[in-house]
Design a protein that fits this description.
Number of helices: 11
CATH topology: Rossmann fold
Strand order of the largest sheet: 8-7-6-9-10-14-13
Radius of gyration: 23 Å
Number of domains: 1
Low-confidence stretches: 1-47, 96-123, 137-175
Helix content: 10-25%
Number of strands: 14
Shape: globular
Largest sheet: 7 strands, mixed
């Protein structure tokens, strides 16, 4: 899921947003009572506002302590998480019966399901005499109740944001570099900074790269909206050169640090990852020598002469940025000397919106419309064909693939 291109100015709207309804706010997480935590250090007591976006990658890691390693330049807490690559017998095999993620109708928001008499009976048991839904909540046990009756409702803090001890940190860093990807990231940010988090779309794209290593071996790759750089780091285990691009100096600094943390992964492949600025809302690459992540003439020449693969992982959450991405894809592919293949991952996020008073999947639907229009482009020198790659290949990382899709776009020359 992005920043991906997320460092661009995207204003978050309080309440329910019909424009960007897909991202999960932290207000859905259990609120914590910090009345008796006066002995915590300042870093341990950091909290987040209710309109903060939180990646579900870490919500799904139960009982996992996260070590805050520093604060970034804008004061956000930065954590380091280690993701183990599952080689050999540890690989999670998938089966073809997991194809329920695909939609039969691209404009359909939710898969249909027939209502059975058993469903109706269960629903009726939940209604009161007036027909209203009567939800009975299980009372918490005395041991689960806070000692203080004071509830600070304006403070939301995920339970996973806890400090690890120095011994814990040393233990975690003793992992084999060939089996572990170390990523520094944030876990709760404003919407415009979600690229500093880790999203599941990066994992499914990384899985495909590790499964099809021969397909990418020795090639030159550019990733758009790379965020923390996770997918680029995995690609560097087989590719020759990876241009890892995004916008925002603070984000690119984080990405550069992650590349340095994982040099051991790409060392045997003899590859290199070059972190560069690429803004989808601009028509030209940044060549200002004073800018820290600008492009040199040699970089630009190599990009256009050698690139055969373009990646983008989970960056489709805002309609304007989705439009800008496909415009960028058009510009780059027409400037390349060689034909290229594009790989896009996306998570279908379902949310209730006030615009339709229903559960919708607006960002995904807009992505599919843009993808269809991209295939229909008849001007220029290229023609594109998009196919969905079914998620039946092995998992090299532990995560849930529900609602994730991977798309492959191939280019042919128009005659």
């Amino acid at each position: 899921m992005t920043s991906s291109p997320c460092a661009r100015s995207v204003q978050s709207v309080p309440g329910v947003s019909s424009r960007r309804p897909e991202l999960r706010p932290t207000c859905e997480i259990q609120e914590q009572n910090h009345a008796d935590q006066g002995q915590q250090t300042e870093m341990e007591a950091i909290t987040f506002s209710k309109d903060t976006v939180l990646s579900d990658v870490h919500l799904r890691i139960q009982h996992k302590r996260q070590l805050m390693v520093r604060l970034n330049t804008v004061g956000q807490p930065v954590f380091q998480t280690q993701f183990k690559i599952l080689w050999g017998n540890n690989v999670i095999e998938t089966t073809s019966n997991k194809e329920e993620n695909s939609l039969g109708d691209e404009n359909e928001s939710l898969p249909s399901r027939e209502t059975t008499p058993h469903d109706v009976q269960e629903l009726g048991a939940l209604l009161d005499d007036d027909g209203d839904l009567d939800v009975r909540r299980r009372p918490s046990s005395p041991s689960d109740r806070p000692e203080s009756p004071v509830c600070i409702r304006d403070v939301v803090c995920p339970t996973i944001l806890t400090m690890g001890s120095e011994e814990y940190y040393k233990e975690e860093t003793l992992c084999n570099d060939e089996d572990v990807v170390k990523i520094e990231h944030t876990m709760a940010t404003p919407l415009e900074d979600v690229g500093k988090q880790i999203w599941r779309g990066a994992f499914i794209l990384a899985d495909y790269i590790l499964w099809q290593q021969d397909l990418f071996r020795g090639c030159t790759v550019i990733e758009l909206g790379a965020g923390t750089g996770f997918t680029s780091i995995i690609m560097a285990t087989v590719a020759k050169t990876v241009y890892c691009t995004d916008v925002g100096e603070d984000l690119l600094d984080m990405c550069e640090r992650n590349v340095s943390l994982n040099k051991g992964l790409s060392k045997t492949a003899g590859s290199q990852v070059k972190v560069k600025e690429l803004d989808w809302l601009k028509n030209q690459l940044c060549t200002d020598p004073e800018a820290p992540y600008s492009w040199t003439e040699d970089d630009i020449a190599d990009l256009y002469d050698q690139t055969t693969v373009i990646l983008a992982a989970d960056v489709f959450y805002d309609d304007d940025l989705t439009d800008a991405l496909f415009k960028t894809l058009y510009q780059i592919t027409h400037a390349l000397t060689r034909l290229c293949t594009i790989y896009l991952s996306i998570e279908r996020r379902f949310n209730f919106t006030l615009r339709y008073m229903d559960i919708t999947c607006d960002a995904y639907n807009h992505f599919r419309n843009c993808l269809n229009n991209f295939e229909k482009i008849s001007k220029g020198k290229l023609k594109w064909n998009a196919t969905e790659i079914k998620p039946v290949f092995p998992q090299y990382f532990s995560y849930e693939r529900e609602h994730l899709e991977l798309w492959k776009i191939t280019a042919t020359t128009l005659t």
